Amino acid sequence: MNRLKLRLTAVCLAALILACGLPVRADTLGPGDAGEQVTALKTRLYELGYFSSKKFSNDYNDVTAQHVREFQLINGLAVTGDTDEATWEALFAEDARTAFRPAKMTEDNYENFVWPVLPNDFPVTDDEGFLPSADQEPYVYASRENGFWCYISHDAHIEIRRMYEGITPLTWFESEIWLRGEERLRSLMDPKFRKLVNRDPREIAKDYQAVLAVSDDFYGYRYYHETQKAGIIVRERQIVYNKTKKSGTHTLPNMDVIALFEDGTLKTFDSQEYTAQEYLDMGVTDTWAFGPILLRDGEIDDRLLESAKYYVDIYPRSAIGMVEPNHYIILSVLGRQTESLGIRPIWLAQRMQDLGCTEALNLDGGNTIAVVFMGDMINKPEGANTGYMKGIRFLSSMIGAGTIQ
């Protein structure tokens, strides 16, 4: 059914409901309720794009509450999951906002985006963008106000841009990394791999003297709790875990892999494409397993293009990608808050593609997301960034770039 027919069907159904005397607006509904009003609610949510299928019951279940929360968040209502009077009115208002469709950045809509303010004192660099001499003190710039962080040394060039789009709305961090010489993208993880210790992300970054440290696949949680297979995990050329899910699934995570090779190449693979030993034989130093694959050989994964069926929820998300060997992009997108709703994986894939990546993988998101620059966790409010920070998730490992000199 095309979009026009779908809209006409929904309008006719709403008219029929009114004609039959069934109230479109009702007393507050919530989990556990059932009946015609719940059916009317779901039908309207379907017409607005929050349900991907019209095959639903008349029960107000957890899925219904989830879609109501999404509608409330997008339409500026109190996010409760219950359908109160204000939610009923907003649902049937002419300006009701449809399911989340984040704006794709184009030349025509730059005015909707708030860009970081760059410093005017960048140092003189060589043709590759690094400091010409290894004897020079690294250049460091950090400004929450301007939304820009930068570190440049003889072998590392790291820039972090805080981006904001006000229509959705959406806030995210783009970390761009260039490395050479002895500097490599690396896993920040206790060498005693079997002894998983969850710690404050800032402590992990400090222990490894990492300029930039970001959250990874959070494999340690899956391994420790044994709630699901942890995926093919290689760290520092050692096999950590070798059990994964069947290739081609649509679960989240589906345990797809991004592998780091000795020459700085990142390459994505299906979950069961190779064993851990085969990765080592290929020259892989580290793997991260989460998924789904976002980009492979420059193309967006087909499963993401089937967004009406899979990966439709909007959440805080993160991803890692490669432009070319030793040139990487890491995206960290905030979500579940008024100033930033979150995104679907397809947005990550499109943004990675726009930034020139050829390979990219979705990493663990949600409250796991951490972006630590020179010891400061910049994705959390500055006022809360002292001592124990409420609301952060302790991690067992991170991805690091650059070494503080």
Overview of this structure, please?
- This protein has 405 residues and is α+β, with helices and mostly antiparallel strands.
- The protein has nine helices and 20 strands.
- A hairpin with a 4-residue loop joins strand 2 (139-143) and strand 3.
- Helix 1 (3-19) runs antiparallel to helix 2.
- The model is unreliable at 1-23 (pLDDT under 50).
List the SSEs and their pairings.
Layout: H1 3-19, H2 36-47, H3 62-74, H4 85-91, E1 113-114, E2 139-143, E3 148-152, E4 156-165, E5 170-179, E6 186-189, H5 201-207, E7 210-215, H6 219-225, E8 231-235, E9 238-243, E10 256-261, E11 266-269, H7 276-281, E12 284-290, E13 293-296, E14 299-300, H8 302-305, E15 317-324, E16 327-333, H9 345-354, E17 359-363, E18 371-373, E19 376-377, E20 397-403
Antiparallel strand pairs: 1-4, 2-3, 3-4, 4-5, 5-16, 6-20, 7-18, 7-20, 8-9, 10-11, 10-12, 13-14, 13-17, 15-16, 15-17, 18-19
Helix pairs in contact: 1-2
